[in-house]
Specification:
Strand order of the largest sheet: 2-1-3-4-7
Structural class: alpha/beta
Shape: globular
Number of helices: 12
């Protein structure tokens, strides 16, 4: 701010594959008196094409650009105002949430407080998830769930789970105890918008379940939670998985025309995990220790109805950090 600076600094994160400056989020920070900054992470092209055959640009996207931005921003703030910020914060959601966790993990001295919303973490399993769903719900027209059936599915879920919190109000307070089997919506006569074919029943149960290894049955990434049915269109409403996920594997295979229908979950996820190790793979929960030890505060949040990232991924990460670092060390910080 030219005047009225609150003495603090707030950096803001990106979405998707970045490539743009987060002006709307910066404007919100500025309106509250913060000095603020954002980065396009080093590129201005859509998708992951910037990283094809260019490891350094991928490193910029993964973590380096936010740190370099922060170092330069603090220097500019000090020069402009004649003093360093009294507190420094990072605020990001989705990719920005992942950037927030990477900052806490890799650069614990950068920020005093970090807000990590709906973090795209772990990104490699996250991007495997919609392709896994696509293989089972999109390749065959008979397994696709028409969007006009989403309301009936949603009403079926509400009938099964709305009252679990003791109040029937059209909302599911906590979806985790909800047990819904789509067979209750199976068509008993002619197919219509209010019922499901046997193939569609199977697809609904797939979407509401976690992505799993075909070989071991191990969970790869959580599924949608009950109550999200009206928002399934983004991930399963088309004829192929959304580009944010596809781009990761186009990058891994260095092939912009890579065909997702050839995807082998176990083989190709393992290849991506090896290729992207330390960049887009799971953030080590133990690596948060230094941030907590210096008194850093990490606020994480995730909506149960998130249409892009299954919310249990954030719950799982929270639990993994508490288990790895110790509840005593995180109780005042996480």
């Amino acid at each position: 701010p030219a005047s009225g600076w609150n003495g603090k600094f707030q950096a803001v994160g990106n979405g998707g594959w970045a490539g743009t400056i987060g002006y709307p989020a910066m404007a919100q920070a500025l309106a509250r008196g913060y000095a603020t900054t954002s980065t396009d992470t080093g590129h201005s092209t859509p998708g992951a094409s910037f990283a094809f055959g260019h490891r350094e640009k991928l490193i910029d996207y993964a973590y380096r650009s936010e740190h370099e931005m922060t170092v330069k921003a603090k220097s500019i703030i000090n020069a402009f105002y004649g003093s360093a910020p009294t507190r420094s914060y990072f605020n990001g959601c989705s990719t920005g949430g992942r950037q927030a966790l990477m900052e806490a993990s890799r650069y614990p001295e950068d920020f005093d407080g970090i807000i990590a919303g709906a973090a795209a973490n772990p990104k490699t399993p996250l991007d495997t998830w919609p392709i896994w769903m696509g293989l089972q719900t999109m390749r065959d027209p008979a397994t696709r769930i028409p969007q006009e059936k989403y309301p009936a599915i949603h009403q079926g879920v509400l009938a099964a789970c709305d009252g679990l919190d003791g109040l029937k109000d059209g909302l599911i307070d906590d979806p985790t105890p909800c047990k819904f089997d789509a067979r209750v919506l199976a068509c008993k006569g002619a197919e219509g918008p209010g019922c499901l074919t046997p193939q569609q029943v199977q697809s609904v149960n797939i979407v509401l379940g976690p992505a799993k290894s075909a070989r071991t049955g191990a969970e790869i990434f959580p599924g949608f939670q009950p109550g999200t049915e009206l928002q399934w269109g983004r991930l399963i409403g088309g004829t192929e998985p959304y580009d944010t996920a596809l781009d990761q594997f186009r990058m891994v295979f260095n092939d912009p025309k890579w065909d997702w229908r050839t995807f082998d979950v176990d083989r190709d996820l393992a290849r991506a995990e090896e290729d992207l190790k330390g960049l887009l793979t799971s953030i080590d929960p133990k690596s948060m220790s230094a941030f907590f030890d210096r008194g850093g505060k990490l606020l994480t949040y995730h909506g149960w109805s998130d249409q892009d990232i299954a919310p249990l991924a954030s719950v799982n990460f929270y639990k993994s950090v508490v288990a790895a670092v110790g509840e005593g060390r995180t109780s005042s910080s996480l």
